[in-house]
Specification:
Elements: H1 2-10, E1 16-25, E2 30-42, E3 46-48, H2 50-59, H3 63-80, H4 83-86, E4 89-93, H5 96-100, H6 104-115, E5 122-127, H7 128-132, H8 135-146, E6 151-157, H9 165-169, E7 174-177, H10 179-184, H11 191-206, E8 210-213, H12 219-227, E9 232-233, E10 242-243, H13 244-254
Parallel strand pairs: 2-4, 4-5, 5-6, 6-7, 7-8, 8-9
Antiparallel strand pairs: 1-2, 1-9, 1-10, 2-3
The chain binds guanosine-5'-monophosphate (2 copies), manganese (II) ion and sodium ion.
């Protein structure tokens, strides 16, 4: 509760910062974009994880102004880093409450307009649980924003309960495979986990979705994914979430 109070004053006092984690195209072995991940530099507690404060920000509805700030900041950064010329995309996590707002589509369009970022350079990450809360509304918001070129990723796919019905009905672009799938492949008898992974990749691709594997921590995992025809990957092996200045120099040395 104390944290909720601090959160209130933190919105608008520059205590939030976006970190950026690279997303790599596996078949070309090159950068395809970044995922923006929020960090809170608490004056007393130091870095507070979004796992701790995003739920509080949702309860207190502070996620609404915070979510708008995240979108504007991420779009602005993508313009600064010349994403359009480089053919890169910025991925932004959207919260359930934010996505349900009647003016969600307008607020995204506004962020694009103000920053000058073309819609096709923005990817919004949604989770299954949030789109399942109102699949009709989700479909409308996605379709409207797709007219502006915005892409959509289903985040944490396969974590916890999973419903394939979302894949039947929503016009998504990417499927982000939860890192638990890769972790399962490290077990000594990993025949079945590997089959699951391979089958997921092929199912997604037949549905016209690009697969992004999360949590790649070793070169072997990267090779395995390439072998299975997985499109893209993200994880500590390729790069950690890092502050803007580090991400920016990373981009130049990696290019
Ligand atoms: O960066 P990582 O540890 O620590 O993120 C943890 C969780 O917080 C992830 O589930 C991620 O989706 C979520 N998260 C990170 N940044 C944001 C953000 O900008 N907005 C929302 N809604 N969630 C975020
Ligand atoms: O839920 P979402 O996928 O948005 O959250 C991304 C989370 O995954 C962040 O907390 C980020 O720090 C974390 N992450 C990114 N790469 C790796 C990785 O290679 N291994 C592990 N364990 N976590 C990772
Ligand atoms: Mn994400
Ligand atoms: Na994820």
């Amino acid at each position: 509760r104390e944290l909720t109070r601090d959160l209130q004053s933190a919105v608008g006092t520059g205590q939030f910062e976006l970190f950026y984690q690279p997303i790599i195209s596996l078949w070309r072995s090159e950068l395809s974009g970044f995922e923006a991940l929020i960090r809170w530099r608490h004056p007393q507690r130091g870095l507070v994880s979004p796992v701790q404060f995003i739920p509080l920000a949702e309860e207190s509805r502070l996620i609404l102004p915070l979510g708008e700030w995240i979108l504007r900041r991420a779009c602005g950064q993508a313009v600064e880093w010349k994403f359009e010329q480089r053919g890169l995309s910025m991925s932004v996590n959207v919260s359930a409450l934010q996505f349900e707002q009647r003016d969600f589509v307008q607020s995204v369009q506004m962020a694009l307009e103000r920053s000058g970022l073309p819609g096709h350079c923005l990817t919004l990450e949604l989770t299954e649980s949030m789109v399942l809360r109102d699949i009709g509304l989700a479909g409308r918001h996605i379709r409207q924003l797709k007219e502006s070129g915005v892409r959509f990723a289903l985040d944490d796919f396969g974590a916890g309960y999973s419903s394939l019905s979302v894949l039947q009905s929503l016009p998504l672009d990417h499927l982000k495979m939860d890192r638990s799938f890769l972790q399962a492949c490290r077990r000594p008898d990993s025949k079945r986990p590997r089959l699951v992974l391979e089958t997921l990749v092929s199912m997604a691709q037949r549905l016209g979705l690009t697969v992004i594997a999360e949590g790649v921590e070793t070169a072997e995992q990267g090779e395995l994914l390439r072998h299975f025809g997985c499109d893209s990957a993200q994880g500590y092996f390729f790069g950690r979430p890092q502050p803007a200045d580090e991400a920016s120099s990373w981009m130049f040395t990696a290019a």
